[in-house]
Amino acid sequence: MKNIYIIGVGLIGGSLAIDIKKHNPEAIIHGISRKEATLDQALALNLIDKKATLEDLVHADLVIVSIPVDATVKLLPTILDKVPDSGLVIDAGSTKEAICKVVENHPKRRNFLAMHPIAGTEYSGPSAAIAGLFVGKTNIICEVEKTAFKLQEQALNLFAAIGMRIRYMNPESHDKHIAYVSHLSHISSFMLGKTVVDKERNERDIFDMAGSGFASTVRLAKSSPEMWTPIFQQNKTNVIETLNEYINNLTHFKTLMESDDFEAIFNEMRNTNHIKEILNGIN
Amino acid sequence: MKNIYIIGVGLIGGSLAIDIKKHNPEAIIHGISRKEATLDQALALNLIDKKATLEDLVHADLVIVSIPVDATVKLLPTILDKVPDSGLVIDAGSTKEAICKVVENHPKRRNFLAMHPIAGTEYSGPSAAIAGLFVGKTNIICEVEKTAFKLQEQALNLFAAIGMRIRYMNPESHDKHIAYVSHLSHISSFMLGKTVVDKERNERDIFDMAGSGFASTVRLAKSSPEMWTPIFQQNKTNVIETLNEYINNLTHFKTLMESDDFEAIFNEMRNTNHIKEILNGIN
């Protein structure tokens, strides 16, 4: 893989660029972005070797699409139109159903691999890119059987080189479960941040009282709205389901407090404590 | 301060024991606990030098009370009864109103200092104790004017030695604001953990999909129910207020999603993003 094109050189695209270049020093990493400033920054940070445009994709051995998921749905058919027959296109979106759907009948569907690397931080843009982000992280691959075998092989070699663990899943299951273990956490964090910031707007000193527990629970409220709004939009039905259940659980907890049933409050917490064992499996 | 008694040798008491001993090598650290096994563990971990009982407090130069806040309310008057006139008693509870209230008319009120060190982890018990836990952390002191001046001075020297930043506050303000920046985070985290664990109970593989974002938002769900139930009980009114606001914000977010108002969803997140600057001030 000599000519590699990264569309969207932010946290995920930029971090992939660093690791791919490390394991393929002979590759030329081309960056593509709507914003010239992003490409300038990516060049300055040595994430990419060259700037490029969509027209250049005719030369692509590999294309990584790491842009907001609404942009991926719009652009993916055009990207597949342009790549050569030997080219592999991989998207890194946090939703998979709408993205797989939009190319299901594309004549070059076999050139496409749908993935979701479970890796990231709350930061965004080229400056958020870091080396080794994917080591030991899970990479969910959807509809692997629809990708040409030779291109699957290339992709798996690449993922192995940068240290990812592979899990296969269908797009519907991905979107349903990721709503629970990722999308809901983001909403919980944004709304927790909003609740506290609204309340304490005029009492900035109060944040002196906040410790690492608060910081941990609201960390995701720093995430990019450009990235997350289309995720919630594409995964609307599943996310609303998780929100209903979360709100019901919070309301039940509040009702127990209002009725002074602190034995039940204790049991609610004790029963959730075993999440320790689950979390011990997560980096 | 030669004879120091730590009542409750867990995360906070044990960590204080380590740091106090480091800065006062001549001190003898006595441990007191309901459970013999806890004291054995604390001795084995070198957190304490000796086991003791409440009867021994007649020899105390300093007593640290770091037990669940319901136990503090019950025990604090007895502890004050026993200490000598020169003894300083400090509690480390996460609520302050009920604790200050129970000793407001105690003849030895001037021997007591109410504090809340904003430090900790999600772990508990002697094995959770760590050196340097308090470096750079905020220590909230309530009703400082009610403590004898000489004892205030001793306490402040101790806090300075172990690296804490001091903030003064009245107990009512403490309990009101800490509900937002600490207690609500714990409930949010416990209920998020419950929502996901309940849903995915039969699909353990799903946790392979969980990344650092999920881990961060549910980390506090590992916290001790023994410690947290009485905190919620003592701070019931404030905690219910924060829960109402949090549930309203989540419900509003859900309503925006249901009505496909993703522009408003975007703005909700954008407006909360500035929590970045606030969090940058927290370790």
From TrEMBL, chains A, B:
It comes from the Bacteria. It is an enzyme of class 1 (oxidoreductase). Keywords: Oxidoreductase. SUPFAM superfamilies: 6-phosphogluconate dehydrogenase C-terminal domain-like, NAD(P)-binding Rossmann-fold domains. Its EC number is 1.3.1.12. Residues 2-283 form the Prephenate/arogenate dehydrogenase domain. Signal peptide: none annotated. GO terms for molecular function: prephenate dehydrogenase (NAD+) activity. Pfam families: PDH_C, PDH_N. InterPro entries: 6-PGluconate_DH-like_C_sf (IPR008927), NAD(P)-bd_dom_sf (IPR036291), PDH_C (IPR046825), PDH_N (IPR046826), Preph/Arog_dehydrog (IPR050812), Prephen_DH (IPR003099). Gene3D superfamilies: 6-phosphogluconate dehydrogenase C-terminal like domain, NAD(P)-binding Rossmann-like Domain. NCBIfam families: PRK08507.1. PANTHER family: PREPHENATE DEHYDROGENASE, PREPHENATE DEHYDROGENASE [NADP(+)]. This is Prephenate dehydrogenase.
